Amino acid sequence: MIPxxxxxxxxxxxxxxxxxxxxxxxxxxxxxxxxxxxxxxxSGSAVWSKAHELKYxxxxxxxxxxxxxxxxxxxxxxxxxxxxxxxxxxxSVLLGWEEDGKLVQKQFDGFRSFENREIQHxxxxxxxxxxPLETKTIYARIQNSGILSAPFRVWRxxxxxxRMERDYIANGAYFGIIxxxxxxxxxxxxxxRERAYVYYCLYLATLAINYSLLGGFFKQMIxxxxxxxxxxxxxxxxxxxxxxxxxFSLTFLNLKNINPFLHRLILLSVAAFGAMAVxxxxxxxxxxxxxxxxxxxxxxxxxxxxxAYSYIKGVKSSLFFLFAWVTLFVGVIFDSLTKxxxxxxxxxxRYGVQIGTALEVILFSLAxxxxxxxxxxxxxxxxxxxxxxxxxxxxxxxxxMRILPDTVPKNxxxxxxxxxxxLYDVGGDFYDYFEFSEGFGLVIADVTGxxxxxxxxSSTVKIAFRNAKEFKESPKDLIGAMNRFLCTSLNxxxxxxxxxxxxxxxxxxxxxxAGNPPFILIRNREIESFECPGLLxxxxxxxxxxxxxxxxxxxxxxxFFTDGLYENLRPEEEPETIxxxxxxxxxxxxxxLFHLNLMNKLSEMRQSSKDDITLVSIDLTKN
Length: 623
Description:
By secondary structure, the chain is an alpha+beta fold. Helix content is 47%, strand content 20%. The protein has 3 domains: 25-159, Immunoglobulin-like, CATH 2.60.40.2380; 164-377, Rhopdopsin 7-helix transmembrane proteins (Up-down Bundle); 404-620, Phosphatase 2c, domain 1. The chain contains 16 helices and 19 strands. The strands form 4 sheets. Strands 2-1-3-8-5-6 form a 6-stranded antiparallel sheet. The longest helix is centred in the middle third of the chain and has 52 residues, at 352-403. The model is unreliable at 6-21 (pLDDT under 50).
């Protein structure tokens, strides 16, 4: 954020540089809209109207105007003076007067290059030498496609060049502050990637272009050899400025969330300004300038209203936004009234637009800085909350790991390998087993959903499984007991599960399923799947589950898994058509290597995981 002390120093320097030579009053003019030549108006054939002493603007619809006024030297000595027309954007000026009985005329053409001017100045200026006590009548025809005005001033030679030097220093300071703010905020954008900074930098850039075109600096300093009018580019840049300040306001004020109506209204206005910028080369200039009469008050009131609403809704940095528009409005008003001679000429009045826009962009920068501080504070708070959540998840993961078996069964009749991969830090899959002398019981389950809530419910599944231990040799009874318990313990959540009981004495596998995928048996390089239909646990407490049996042989390999193992691989195919081709090349591998390779092959096929994955492989030993 820019220190306030530096801002005050800049404004003090700006005011100091712009003070000095007293600004002379404008000459009193007469005018006519008759289409006559210079010789005709000088011969007295034109009918002149006396302008009010404060009127130097003639509207937007007249193509040209003739004016005449007197240059008076009240001193008994020769005086050198400068006649300045404070309108760098004018199309053409024809100046004429009588000198020693001869007609003298000078032409200014706004379409010609800067180097053709008599005096190298951003405004049309002319040098005169007045004899002692001489009064010289000047005739001028001004043509312009836009506002037609005749803001002449008559300077003493030394005063003019002294003022010109101060003007250039003051305007240099103005462009300097714009450029500095542009670089400063551009660097911040590179660091934080906040879109508001992009729109603000684009606004600053178009603002600098606007004033360079409006003030005549564009041709003087940048393209002195340019033989064309810069007026269409001025209209493009002005509408582009309104476009970017609108986009900046939308992003900065967060209107999309707090007031969608204002958001849509400003967005529509931005689109209109963008269209005006594109078509500025073909729309008549006077139409565009007339539109500005309504555009500026409209956008001012709209953005002020949006800023006030945003501030009321708690966006505290909007206060700087409001102050920025107030300073610009005051600066433009003082500048306009001063140029129209409606108020006495003062430093603030003469440089009202520069001071107003300088204060505006500084306040915008302060507002962005404060907003960035709030964002950083929110980010730090979010990081703290994220750290807490991560710690809680780590604790939940450790708790869940304690719910799952911490070792594989130590049974000489079988060996077991398990892969358990929750989608997040914790998951809804669950497996457990009963181990006893004449048999082995394995349960595998999948709670609907993911994350912490599913993991919490998986602990309930463990309780249900352990409570049903008395039915360990009867899969359908065990699954039924778990179902009755879960119907009263789960809220709006269900469980797919299966229980497998290996009877070593009879060499049978008894199993019952509640919506679990089929299991796979690998024997003598042959692959076969088995399933048992059944309703998910937690749906109907009185549901009767089916039980099936499969004969086993020593050396058999059994694969039990949840649906996350094959989901999202080829959704339109059955599990068998997906898994069998991947299992077949691996059937001769020893158990650990088979298990690892199968998981790796399926992971390579899977573009992204969308569910918890559990795979349990059991080999029946041959000895």
